[in-house]
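Methods — Computational structure assignment.
A single polypeptide chain was analysed. Its primary sequence is given first, followed by the predicted tertiary structure written as structure tokens.
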Amino acid sequence: MSLPTRIRESTSISRTELLLAVLAGASGVAGSYAVAGYTRQFIVAPIDALVVRLTPGELVAFVIDNIGDEGHLLHIALSFVIATGLLSAIALLGLRVADRLTEPTLGIVLAGGLTWGLTAAITGDAALAVGAAAPVLLFTALAATSVTRSNDAVEHSSARRRVVASALAFVGVAAGVGRLTGEQSTATTETDIDDAVAEQVRQAESQSLDISGDVPGLVSSIGEFYNVDIAEFDPEVPSEDWSMTITGEVGEDVTVSYAELTDRPVERRHVTLRCVGEDLNGEKLDNAVWTGTPIKPLLDEADPEGECECAMLRAEDDYFVQFPLDALEDAFLAWEMNGQPLPQSHGHPVRVLVPGHWGETNVKWLSEIELLDEEMDGYWEQRGWHGTGPVNTVAKLWSTTTLDSGAIELAGHAYAGTRGIERVEVSTDGGSTWQDAELSEPLPGDDVWRQWRHEFEPDGSHEVVVRAVDGEGTLQPEDRSDSFPSGATGWVRQTVNMMGSSG
């Protein structure tokens, strides 16, 4: 064999090396998952956060409008691919170094060390980075000693199969261990509901309409309450470590700990949240009883200054929203939801509730309120969405049920933020004539939804239209628009036949 031929064979990457490097990288990702679980210390989490931040706003809007809830699977899949690719490249480098040396130890140690360093840099956790480094080192060693240095074809094939099988088995076991780790880290302990919250929940149950169809009650359970975040991995903030600072254009910075916050005057409020990214008749609309304290006294202590009379609210997940100060006059810092400590996914330990504004502006994992001297765009405004509220009026048609009598029952919820709902009107002839629906009694609070129901006798196919009138007497706009950039609007329409089905 000539010297140039030997050089080409030495420098080229074989498919076997590439396969084994990919398996080593996948094992590193799985190892990180095994020790960190589905948390922000998992190597994929910071990568996912970066992918989300770098995604153009136009693309985000397109995914929300055309894919919906499943859109997050795209960025998390890309983040997995990036993480696996980075660790695979390190493993491949280790294999190439090992292949060039008489003793492969240096290449093996290089792969493990670089993996540890990169993972520690990405996650900020040097100890848990060992979970990624150890399997990459191990499978790089297996590949380097059992495969790349074998001259016998049969032995080479058998060794490769052993390494592949071992790597796949490790990935499976690590995934199972990681799932248990994640479940343990996110588990919450239920506590007794205080009497005041329990009474408000009972009152809501007593005011719910007798609806035959599948329509949520007036208080959503924590498990059913919709949840949308900018990234896949939620911050983990123990209550004892939490604090919130009011800073910026203020007379004096104010910092409050969790213990100090929960020692302030306590209120329990019904507050409804609606997602700005949902479609017109979507189901990202829920209500809960929230326990917390008003934000205004804290702002008064800080003595707000600044020309724009506005503030930027910042969260532990790097999310940020600007509000005019007058919108925060009735805002609320909540630490309980339906009498339970806020779940991690809903902003544990403290989140903001700003009455009448879209759900995305009610910042979770609040860490700072910065008073500004001039207006700045928030997270979603930088991505093309418009403003922070107020929410659009909507009447949802969530149920069409054929009753034993043969009548069809229509039902749903209506919501208009702090304007309230005065009535819901239903047409069964495409909008030619209208009738008032039955409404649930208003719950206490300024920012709460209402249930509605209506029965009619069918005589074939009907075009059903529903619309709401808010508490100021303003009719819900008829013209339909998509959720981007200012929230979905329009009247909900469905074709309903004698069997109660719709299309």
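Note: Residues 153-186 form the longest helix (34 residues).
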